[in-house]
Amino acid sequence: MQQHLRNTKQPFTKMVQLDSAPALVVVDMQNGFCHKQGSFAKMGMQSEPTAIIPHINELRSAFRAANIPVFFLRTGYNADYSDRRGRDARDRVEELQGLVRGSWDADILDELTPEPNEKVVDKTRNSGFFQTSLESTLKERGVNHLILTGVGTDVCVESTARDAYQMNFAVTTISDATGTCNKPDHLAALHTLRIFGGTASTAEVIEALQKSQDLRNQRMS
Questions:
Q1: Domain Isochorismatase-like: where (predicted)?
Q2: 66-111, pLDDT tens digit by residue?
Q3: How crowded is residue 183: how many other Cβ atoms within 10 Å of its Cβ?
Q4: CA-CA distance, 147 to 14, in Å (whole number)?
Q5: Distance CA 88, CA 15 (A)
Q6: Chain centroid to CA 146: how far?
């Protein structure tokens, strides 16, 4: 089984050639999850964003330059949490009034403020597909390959990747543009996510994107 898992990663360049309509998806890069003053930091569960923010912005710039859509997923709840399900150790979010829709805690980090043409999809569950407009919007845009970044690798990123895979989207999770509360959980999630599409680095994606654009330009000339 372990040998099988080691062999599941496809070269990203081949995936780009096979899937000609990608989109970049930035998952839950919000103050509540990532900022040192956010609700999850107060619970000792902060995802450390410092290392991944530059990679996400590098990808955003490359995708915008290539006229490829960029989407943000954003978790947020009603003030009374009537739309939040599940009772677990993270219920302190409610005590701290965390991730209330429209609050600073639910806002996307200042360093990643979406551009006007970058669509924000609000959600109340781990997956970006559960009771949201994400699937219909992607299909309207003709997207068939999701490039996933953000937090947490082992929760909302993985949940979104699994659902995307079941919906017949190609999926690639970016190893150095995702993160979670600790490195072992991040690495374990990446290992699993190789089954649901593949993983790649920011540099690999940008290189493959450039090659794909060059190929298209050659065909048009």
A1: 23-203
A2: 999 999 999 999 888 888 876 554 566 766 778 999 999 999 999 9
A3: 11
A4: 14
A5: 38
A6: 9
The structure's pTM equals 0.88
How far apart CA 57 and CA 18 sit, in angstroms, is 25
Element (H, E) at 219: helix 202-220
> Are residues 205 and 61 in contact, defined by beta-carbon separation less than 8 angstroms?
no
Structure-block tokens of residue 9: 């990663």
Q: How far is it, in rounded angstroms, from Cα 201 to Cα 174?
A: 5
Helix (H) or strand (E) holding 179: strand 170-179
Q: Which domains does the chain have, with CATH numbers?
A: 2-220 (3.40.50.850)
Known catalytic residues are 28, 123, 156
CA atoms within 13 A on the CB side of 41: 12
